Amino acid sequence: MCVIEKGAEVGAHILSGAVFETRALDELIPDWQSLNAPVNNPVLQDNFLYLTTQYNHLNIPSFLTPATLHNNEENHIISLGLLCQWLAEQAERLGVEIFPGFAAQHVLYSDTGAVIGVCTSDMGLDKQGEQKSTFEAGIELKGKYTIFAEGARGHLGKELIQRFKLDQASSHSITH
Questions:
Q1: How many Cβ atoms from other residues are within 10 Å of residue 148's Cβ?
Q2: N or C, which end of the chain has less CB nearby within 10 Å?
């Protein structure tokens, strides 16, 4: 199994923080705490504010706040980028090969039209798209299964939606 990541390192494009509930991590990697997961800032206080102006706010009492918005000490404030880096390390320990710095440029199809992989971007091109002395052609990565996780508006996802009419039964379609 391999993962290609267009960022220079895993997590490079994940800049936000989050309030993180650890239930899924508990199920996936039960000993995450002893493996030094970057999940170590428990929520100590929780306030729900309604901003009335740029200078004022109302503090909403806890009993009026929806239960799904309550945080507790089991939740943590984390950096998603650091968590992704740590998860990548765990995956590599299990034998997953991760290749940062490589973007998928286009989908590879079999003669019958089935997805068989992706090709990475060419490297070593100048601003005009001409080959420099450092040119290296993109690499074809083929596999029995190809999973696309580039986000909802990725260029490969749009291609697949259009080619296989994946939005045909949807009330919303992606415009190009």
A1: 14
A2: C
At residue 174, the pLDDT reads: 55
| Residue 71 confidence (pLDDT) | 87
Comparing 48-52, 131-135, 150-154, the range with the smallest average pLDDT is 150-154
The set of residues, in sequence order, having a beta carbon less than 8 Å from that of 119 and lying 6+ positions away, is 104, 105, 106, 108, 138, 139, 140, 141
* Tokens 């990541």, residue located: 5
3-state helix, strand, coil in the chain (%, to 5): 20, 30, 50
Parallel, antiparallel or unpaired: strands 97-100 and 2-5: parallel
Query: Which pTM was predicted?
Result: 0.80
* H or E segment and range at residue 115: strand 115-120
Q: What confidence category does residue 128 fall into, taking pLDDT thresholds of 50, 70 and 90?
A: very high
Mean pLDDT of 69-89: 92
**Rounded distance between C-alpha atoms, residue 94 and residue 113, angstroms:** 32
Whether residue 20 contacts residue 83, with contact meaning beta carbons closer than 8 Å, is answered with yes
Return the structure tokens found at 95: 């034998």
State the Cα angle at 109 between 108 and 110, rounded to 5°: 130
**Could you tell me if 107 and 77 are in contact, meaning their C-beta atoms sit under 8 angstroms apart?**
no
The tokens for 119 are 């090709």
